[in-house]
Amino acid sequence: MAAGDDAQRTLFHPFETGDLDPPGKGARVLFLGAQPGFRLPDGFGADLTLVQGFRPDFLKLKAGKHKVVPEPEGEGYGLVLVLAGKHKGLNEILIAEAMRRGSPAAVILVAGSKDDGIASLRKRLEALTPLGGSLSKFHGQAFWFEKPADARSLATMLEAPHREALIGGRYRATPGMFSHDRIDAGSRLLAQHIPADLSGAVADFCAGWGYLAAEVLERCAGVASLDVFEADFASLEAAKTNLAEARMPVGYHWTDLAGEPVPRTFDAIVMNPPFHQGRAAEPGIGHAMIRAASAALKPSGRLFMVANRGLPYEAALSAGFRQSGELVRDQTYKVLWAKR
After folding, report:
1. What is the C-alpha separation between 54 and 232, in angstroms, rounded?
2. Cys staple from 33: which of 83, 86, 111, 115, with CB 3.0 to 4.6 Å?
């Protein structure tokens, strides 16, 4: 069972033990960070709104007939559930959202894996407001508290440090996004070797918060249109901010490239695909992105991508493209090219 599944079991465990009463029919509950596969405890009859910005998980939750949104909305929830993960800053942002979205008498329930530092998060909150209780189960920990009277100021204090820094004095990103505090070295290597003659319709697959897209526009004067595709909703919103001064309108697509069709074809695609699923390397994600890029390129269209040196993408490129090869490599990364 995955760590996220265990953490969700821990999250709902206080209702199983009787430490918390399950909210009944008519109650409004917000679930921040919801993941597919959770099971509601007996008696949990509330109107549940799930928040999940990662497109593949969003689609799975939606297929389960849940009400699911990509970012928090609304206020006045009597209970707010927070599934904490490995990103300390993102956990604090989520708890700040919980404090804002809860009703004055709301209970905020937080849970996460011990491996992800849930104990230190609990201590952080204990220093700010009294806890109503805590318990450990399924290699995780849950704790809960009533919304404090000074929730607005506490929320600002929790999230402000994570929203103020600029990367390279220019780009905005927040914890939980890929390379949220620096320009990724692999993306930088790719940007340095993007051919200046890229032209026509160009797309950035797995665009993150927009660094490669911005570099394409700066380095390639012949680009006539630019579309960015990203599975993480918050990252795509950050890209909109970071590309707000682009010299042309940019198309933004919140898309699971491994499972959803691309609406048009392109003359060129650049990408730095993810290769991790949780903590494990998963080259299959990159293979899926390569297939998606091949399907979305016009005849003679070109792909430029960066990958860790050890990832076996060459065979997938040979299978999906007429020509392919390597442009450059350093101690960690390689830049690959392919042509339809």
Report:
1. 5
2. 83
Angle between helical axes of 88-101 and 151-159 (0-180°, round to 10) = 160
- Going through 33-130 in order, the beta strands assigned E by DSSP cover 47-51, 67-69, 77-83, 102-113
Give SS3 for 108.
strand
Q: Is 74 exposed, middle or buried (0-12, 13-18, 19+ CB in 10 A)?
A: exposed
> In this structure, is the dihedral angle defined by the CA atoms of residues 149, 69, 47 and 57, taken in order, positive or negative?
negative
Among the listed residues 272, 322, 266, the one whose alpha carbon sits nearest the alpha carbon of residue 297: 266
Tens digit of each residue's pLDDT (9 = 90 or more) over 111-135 = 999 999 999 999 999 999 999 999 9
Q: What is the pTM for the complete model shown? A: 0.93
| Token couple for 237 | 């919103």
- In whole angstroms, what is the distance from residue 320 CA to residue 296 CA? 11
Which amino acid is residue 137, in one-letter code? K
